[in-house]
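Problem 12. The chain below contains 62 residues. Write out its predicted structure in token notation.
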Amino acid sequence: MLEFISAPEAAKKWGISERRVQKLCEEKRIPGVAKFSRLWLIPKDAEKPVDKCLKGERDKNE
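Solution.
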């Protein structure tokens, strides 16, 4: 059976804000995510998506 965690739990696990997790869910960047009413359900074994705005990448382009 697939287990889920909430956005606040994922935020703590990944070291990012709860709002950022919600945005990743809205953008469908987390595979297997589901929305139940106002609650995002994230697969417990989901990996943190790679951030498109990495500081190192910006430095290369300057």
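Discussion. The first strand starts at residue 4 and ends at 5. Students who got a different answer should revisit the alignment rule from Section 12.3.
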